[in-house]
Design a protein that fits this description.
With 423 residues, this protein is an alpha+beta fold. It has 13 helices and ten strands. The protein has helices spanning 20-41, 58-67, 69-88, 99-160, 165-176, 184-198, 233-241, 252-255, 289-308, 314-332, 345-355, 385-394, 414-418, and strands at 202-209, 212-222, 245-246, 262-267, 273-281, 336-342, 364-369, 374-381, 403-408, 421-422. Helix 2 (58-67) runs antiparallel to helix 3 and helix 6 (184-198) packs antiparallel against helix 9 (289-308). The radius of gyration is 43 Å and the shape is rod-shaped. The two termini are 82 Å apart.
Amino acid sequence: MKKPWLEGIEIVDVNTPVSRWGGWFETFVITAAVIAASFITQQADPFRLSGGFPWAVLAPLLAGLRYGFVFGFVSALLTLAVLGVAIDQQWQVARSFPLPWAIGIVVVAMVAGEFRDMWGRRLHRLEGAYQYRAERLEEFTRSYQLLRLSHDRLEQTVANSGFSLREGIMHLQSTLDGIDGLTESSLQKLIEFVAEYGALTQVCIIGITADRIDTSQVLACVGERFPVDEADPVLRMSLDSGELATVNLLQDSVMDQARLLAAVPLADSSGEINAVLAVRSMPFFSFHESNLKLIAVLVAHGVDHLRFGTARPSVPRFIASFERAYQDFSRFRLDTALLRLSGNPDEMRGIHEKLRFSIRAIDFICLAREKDQYVVWVMLPLTDITGAQAWAQRVADIPATSAQEWMPINEIDPQRIRSLEQG
C-alpha cells in the first residue's frame, strides 16, 4: 500500500516479481522491429556496414536497459545471427563477417545490461530497506496507540479511585476488626480486600511449613486457582529478601522460568514470615511500582492488625506499630511523625485519656514509663512533621505546660521505643 507521503511516486514492490516471459517477448519484438526497420529504410545496406550510424544497435541497447544483461546479450546475438544470414544470402553487401562491428554491438548490449542490473540491485535493496522501515513505523504507530489507550485508561482508573493509602489502611482495619489471628477465614478477608484495592485478578496465599514454602497449603485465593512452583524465581527472591519481589526485577537468565508476576511475604513487624502472597495475573495498567508498593504496605498492615490488633496493654501494640512504620519508611519512604509528651504522672494520665478521643483512625497513642518517668507517645503514620504540628494545633487537649518533643521516624533511635514499659 502506498503511503500518503509518497503520493505521485512510483514504488516498485520487490515482493512482486517481473514476468520473465513478458521480458523475453518484448526483447524479441524490439529486436525484430529494429531489424525490419533497418531493412525497410535501406535495403542495400540494412546494417549500415559501409557507413552511417548502425541503427541495429538500438535493439540490444533498449533490451539491456529495459530488462538487463541477459536480455541485451540475447538481443545482440539475435542481431548478429540475422547479420550472418543476411551476408550469407547476400541481402547485406560485405566481403567478410564484420568482427569489430559485431564486438561493438555485443559490448554495447553488455554495458547497458550491466548498468541496468546494477541499479536494479541497488533499487531492490533500497525498496527492501524502505519496506522494513515502513513496517517498523506501522508497528511503532500501533504500539504508540496501544500505549496511549492504556495511559488514558490508567488516568481514568486513578481519577475514579477515591482511596488514598491512609484511607486504604483505615478501611482494611475496619474490615479486619473483630478478627484475631492468621486463620484461613481472616486471610481470605485480607486477600479479598487487597485484591479489590490493588486490582488483582488471580492471587493466592501460600502457607509456610518448617521455614519452607508449602505449595499444597493454599490458605486463601481470589480468582481461578493456579499451581505454584516453590522454585519460581519470583517466589524465591521474595522469601530470600523478605520483601516485595516482582518479575521485572529478575535477571534475564531466569526471567523465562517465572510464572508469577509478584510475591509479597506476609511478615509481621517482628520479621516473622507467616505465609506468602503470590500474584499470578493483574491488569496491565495496575502493574506499576506505586500500586505494587501499595499492595505490599496493605498486606503488612493487615498481618500486623491480625496479629496485634487486639493486643493489651497498649505499649506492646504501640511498639509493634512503630516497627511497622519504621519498616515502611526504610522500604518505601513513608513519613511518620512522633510526639513525646512528658510531665508528672497524673497530668500524663489525663492527657492520655483526652488524646485517645482526638487521634485519627490509624494513629496510635500509649502511656508508658521511660526511665521511671511517665510519658505519652503519639505516632502519626503517613504524616510529616509539618502535618503533625498542624494536627496538634487543631487538638485543644495538649496543655502548654507539658514538655513536647516532635521527631520524624528516621531521626529516632528504635531502641528508645522498644525499651518502653507499660505505664
